[in-house]
Amino acid sequence: MEAIQINMIAILVAVVANFVLGFLWYTPLFGKAWAKEMGFDLSVKPSGGEMAKGMIIMVIGSFFLAYVFAHNMAAWSFVPGSAEMGATANILNSAIFTWLGFYLPVDIGTVTWEKKSWKLFGINTGYHLAMLLVTAIILTLM
Predict the structure, then answer these.
(1) What is the pLDDT of residue 56?
(2) What number of H helices and E strands is found in the chain?
(3) Which among 12, 22, 77, 80 has the fewest CB atoms less than 10 Å away?
(4) C-alpha pair distances (Å), 137 with each of 2, 20, 56, 57, 77
């Protein structure tokens, strides 16, 4: 049995990339719409401590995502025929199937059970798919 090889540098790059993506997604791209759908008052700014705590938790979460996703992608490489698919197909398969199986059902649950809007669903689930695609690209190409 072959050992799974994990590139820790690629994981750290993915963490940084997802941090930047999250900033762009939830600030200039969809920040106002997201805040409105969440019911946040844009005139109220979080304290420095709240921001630091949120950023630290996000970085830790991004690390867990990249680390576990790297293991999943490495394990999928043992599936017969995966090597013949090429990098793009493997990136899309790993990101889209992970999103479909793990993120999309939870995101739909926020609409169903938490009474969040479909607009908020679109913003959040779009971010989750983009985050997985960015991570899969980095993990595959590094």
Answers:
(1) 95
(2) 7, 0
(3) 80
(4) 23, 15, 24, 23, 15
